[in-house]
Amino acid sequence: MVALAASFAVAASLWAGSVAREIVVQQHVRRLALETQQLASDMGQAVTARIHALRSAEGAAPAAQFERLTRANADLGWIGVADTSGVIVAGDRAIANNAAQPWFSKGASGLWIGVIETSSTPAHVPLLGDMSAPLKDAAGQTIGVIAAHLTWPWASTDLQRLSSALDARGSAQSLILDAAGTVVVGPAALRNLPWNGVWTPSPPLDSALGRSAAPHFERLPDGNRVLVARAAVNIPGAPAAQPWLVQLSEPRELVYQRANALAIRIWWISICLGAATAALGALGARHLTGRLKNLTLSAAAVGRDETARIDVPSGRDEVAQLAAAFSKVLDALRQERTELLRLSGELERRVAVRTREVERLAEETRYAAIVRERLQIARDLHDTLAHSMMAMLSEVRLLRKLQIHDPNALADELARAEEVAHAGLNEARSAIAQMRGNSVRDTGLGPALSKAVARFEDRTGLAVEFSMDPDAARFGDERAEVIFRMTEEALRNIERHARATRVRIVLTSVDAAHLQLQIVDDGVGFDTSLARPGHFGLVGLREQAQLIGAELQIASTPDSGTTLRLTLRVTPEAL
C-alpha cells in the first residue's frame, strides 16, 4: 500500500508539474507576443508622427524646415537634414557628408528605417532605431532628406524596462527586420545581416498557440534555441509589399526557467504529501488488517464445520460490516441449501413423469413412421405392381376370348403376357432397389432426374427436353427424394396414357426461397374435374406434395396436353 501510494504521488506530481510548466510557458509566450505587438504599434505611431510633422512643414528651405520641426516637435528627436547632394545643412554634424550612406540614398526615394552611423553612435542603439524620408517643397519636388530618431516617450514602463535590458549578448534581444528578413535595427554584430534562425517544433508551445503567426522556437547557427515573436509595423502610406517587422527573442533557458522552477516545487510538495499520506495509510491498514485476519480465521472455521458461525466484531467500520454481511450470506446459503434439497426431490419426481411421457411420445413417433412407410409402400405398389397386374389382367381376358374365337393367335398372346409379366417383375425390382438406395441424397436432385429422364427416353423413344439450373440441381434433402418419385410417376403416366410425342421438363430456382419443377407434354390430356374411381395416380401425387409442404398444380384439357407444376419453398442454405 505504501509503495502504491508513493507511486501515485510520484505520478500525480509529474503530471501536475508538467501541466503547471506548460501553463507558465504559455503565459510567458503570450506575454512576449503582446510586448512584440505593442512595440510594433509604438514604432508605427512614432514613424507616423514624424511623417505627419514632415508634411506640415513642406514648402520651406531644408534648414528652415528643420528648425521649424525641432521647435514644433521637440519630443520627436530630430537628427538632421541634408540637401540633394548629401551635405548636412542642419542638425547633428556628426553625420558624415556621404551621399552613398543608406539613410540618404534610400531616404531620398521613400521611407527608410535603420540605424544612422555617426561618430557618437552609442553601443546600445535605440530600441526603434532611426528613420529618414524625402523632404519636398511646395511644388512636390525633393529638395533634401531629413532624418530622425524613433523615440517613443509615450510608451509603457514595461517597454522601457525591456529596452534597458536588451543588448547583443543579453537574455532578450529586440530587432527590426525588413521585408527580406535583414536586420536593419539591432546590435552592430547583427546589423545588415539576414536573420538565420531555423524554426524547430516545440510542444506544448505549438499545440497551445499554433505555428504560423504565434511565437515559436528557432535554432541559431551556434546551436542555441531562442523563442521568437514577430509583429508587422503598420505605417500609413508605406509600400504594402515592403513591410517592416519587429522581432523580440529570448533564449529557451530563460523561457523555461520559471516554468521548471514551479514544476520542481510542485513535484517536491506532491511527493512529501504522498509520503505523509502513505505513512498514515500504513498505520490505518495495520489496524484494519488485524481485524481482517480475525475475520479470515472465523471464515476458515466455518469451512471446516458446517454448524459454525461467523464471529461479528464490534464497531461500525468496514470489517464489522463485512463480517455482518458474511453472516447473513451464510444463513441465506444454509436456508437455500435446505430449499434445494426439497426442490431436488420434486425435480426427480417430475423427471420420472416426463421420462414416461417421452417414452409414450417416442412410441407414437415410431407408429407414425410405420404409417408413413406403409403409405410409401402403397404408392410404390401402385406405381409398379398395380400397373403390371392390370396389364396382366388385360392379357388374361384377351387370352380367354382368343381361346374361344381364334385359338391360332393364342401362342402370340401368351408370349405377350409373358413379356408383360417380366416387365412387371423388373418394375417391382426397380422399386425395391429405390427403397433400399437413395441416389437423390447421394448425387442431388438434378443428376438423379437426368438419369431418370435418360432411361425414360431410351424406353419410350420420345423426344424429351430437360433443363435445370445449378442451384436447383444441388438440392438433395428428404424432400428431393419425394420430388424424384413424383417425377417418375408423372413420366409413367405420360408413357401409358398420354400418347405424347414431346415432353419438356424444367427444374429451376424461381428465387432464393422457391424451387420449381415443371413437366409438360403434348398428349391427349384429360378432364381434371372428372372423378376416376379406382385410380390413385393423381391422388398419390397430391398426397406426396402435401407431405413435403409443396404446391402442386395440374392443368390439362382433352386434346391439349398436360402441364404439371410443383413449387416448393426452401431455405437458401438448402440450395
At a glance:
The chain is built from 13 helices and 16 strands. It is an alpha+beta fold.
The main β sheet shows up as: 6 strands, antiparallel
Q: Please, what is the average pLDDT? A: 78
The H/E string reads: HHEEHEEEHEEEHEEEHHHHHEHHEEHEE
What portion of residues is helical?
40-55%
Distance between the termini: 65 Å
Tell me the overall shape.
elongated
Tell me the number of strands: 16
Range of strand content: 15-25%
Question: What class would the helix/strand composition place it in?
Answer: alpha+beta
The number of domains: 3
Query: Mind telling me the C-alpha Rg?
Result: 57 Å
Poorly predicted regions: 165-170, 204-212
How are the strands ordered across the major sheet? Answer: 7-6-11-10-9-8
Number of helices: 13
Commentary on this structure:
Helix 7 (318-405) runs antiparallel to helix 8 and helix 10 runs parallel beside helix 12. The chain has helices spanning 2-56, 62-72, 102-105, 157-165, 205-209, 252-304, 318-405, 410-436, 439-443, 445-460, 470-473, 478-498, 537-547; strands spanning 78-83, 88-91, 112-114, 130-136, 142-149, 173-177, 183-185, 198-199, 216-219, 225-232, 245-251, 463-468, 502-511, 514-521, 551-556, 562-569. The protein has 575 residues and is α+β, with helices and mostly antiparallel strands. The strands form 3 sheets. The protein has a 6-stranded antiparallel sheet. A 5-stranded antiparallel sheet has the order 2-1-5-4-3. Strands 12-13-14-16-15 form a 5-stranded mixed sheet. The protein is elongated.
